[in-house]
Specification:
146 residues, alpha/beta, four-stranded mixed beta sheet, two-stranded antiparallel ribbon, 4 helices, 6 strands, 34% helix, globular
Length: 146
Amino acid sequence: EIIHQKQRKLEKHANAHVVFLHFGVASSRRCISLETQAKNIADFRCPDERNQMLRNQKIDPKGADQLKPASLDVNALASTLASQGHACNTSDDAGEFICNWIFHHSLARCEDRMHSLFIHVPPFDKVSLVDQLAFIADSLGALAAD
C-alpha cells in the first residue's frame, strides 16, 4: 500500500524520485555495505519471526533464478560516501535470509522513478552508532543531490 501511495505522489511531481531504504545488521561485516543486487532465493538458516524456515525456495516462484540488480548506481554512491571519510563498500550478497527477502520484494515492486537500496550495517562494536548515523545522514544527502 505504501508503494502505491508514493506512486500517486510521484505523479504530481514530474522530476521526483523515491528511494526506499532498508537496513539490516550483518554481524560478520566490518564496515557498512551497500547491496548491489538481490537473489531470488530464500534459504533460511533459522526460523524467521513467524517461525517459518524456508529452505532453498524461490522468493518469486514465477521469477527466474536470476539476480535482481539495484536500480541505483550503488558503486557511485559508495565512492561518494568513501570520499566523505566513511568506511564502506559494495556487496553482491545480501544473504539468503530476511535481508535478501526484503530487498528482492522491494526491487520487484519499484518501477519508473522508484528505487530500493539495502544497507547492511555491522554491530556497534565494529562501527559505532555515531558513525552509522553520520553515514545514514550523508547517504540521504548524496541520494537527494542525485
